[in-house]
From TrEMBL:
Organism of this sequence: Selaginella moellendorffii
Annotated region (Disordered), positions in chain: 59-94
Pfam family, one: HAD_Pex22
Classification lineage: Eukaryota, Viridiplantae, Streptophyta, Embryophyta, Tracheophyta
Polar residues biased stretches: 85-94
Name listed for the protein in its UniProt record: Peroxisome biogenesis protein 22
Matches recorded under InterPro entries: PEX22
Length: 266
């Protein structure tokens, strides 16, 4: 389309040139001011037309060719070598990740294991009878009180990493003294710097349940199914210590056979 327009303009320019020649020869015989002005105006028109034609059809210069050289074998080798090194490092990282996923618990300390099992909980209430102590009833406390050796280390870690409260049902003051002496013997008050006032005593199961309700812990550990069920609406996590799984427990109640079997998962 543009070429056709340019061709037409060229024809007009040639025709105008012929007429211009005739007009110039005519005006040369009739020299006056008006004829000279006409010649000048016509000449200007021709110049403008010629410039427009040149601008409409600019000369296209050839684009410089860029020579692309193939990469040398040395650069190719270095590139492949770096990619191989990256893949090797990625493979090593994946292998380390797999190793961590396969056996993470074996690398935990007891303190890390206890914190892991608390799931972010900070306040814990725990029954002593049948959980920390070898004795399971108040009648057994009349003769002696002994901390279970397997539970001793876990108890010390709980005392140091969270706000721990221990509670037990007793029949008399002598039983209280026996329990305090047993806890002192494993270093609870010296090594863990545990406050003696956080060892609470009561005379009934209802009293222990009331203690827990008032303290509002994140975790409660107990052996009584009745108390665990009563507290399930109020406590976020509960751990039921039972020799055998009972089933049909609230969703926030976990079952285990001993204290250490839950917290010491190394």
């Amino acid at each position: 389309m543009a070429n056709e327009v340019l061709e037409e303009l060229a024809q007009i320019f040639r025709a105008a040139s012929k007429k211009m020649s005739a007009l110039v020869s005519f005006l040369m015989h009739h020299k006056d001011a008006s004829s000279i002005g006409a010649i000048a105006g016509f000449a200007i028109a021709l110049v403008c037309t010629w410039r427009y034609m040149r601008s409409s059809n600019p000369v296209r210069r050839p684009k410089p060719t860029v020579k692309v050289e193939a990469p040398s074998s040395s650069s190719s080798d270095s590139t492949s070598g770096s990619s191989t090194a990256i893949e090797s490092r990625g493979s090593q990282a994946r292998q380390r990740g797999v190793a961590i996923q396969e056996a993470p618990l074996s690398k935990l300390t007891l303190a890390q294991s206890v914190k892991r099992q608390l799931k972010g909980g900070r306040k814990v209430t725990c029954q002593l009878l049948g959980v920390v102590l070898q004795e399971n009833s108040t009648a057994d406390l009349e003769n002696h009180a002994v901390v279970r050796p397997a539970a001793a280390d876990v108890l010390l870690e709980l005392a140091q990493c969270c706000d721990l409260y221990l509670m037990s049902r007793v029949n008399d003051d002598a039983s209280e003294e026996a329990i305090l002496a047993a806890l002192d013997q494993i270093g609870l008050f010296s090594k863990a710097n545990f406050n003696r006032n956080k060892v609470l005593f009561c005379s009934s199961e209802a009293g222990r349940c009331s203690f827990v309700r008032q303290l509002e812990p994140d975790w409660h550990i107990d052996t009584s199914v009745d108390i665990v069920n009563q507290l399930a609406r109020y406590i976020h996590h509960e751990l039921l210590i039972s020799p055998a799984p009972l089933g049909s427990m609230p969703s926030n109640v976990l079952e285990t056979n001993t204290l250490e079997s839950y917290f010491d998962c190394r």
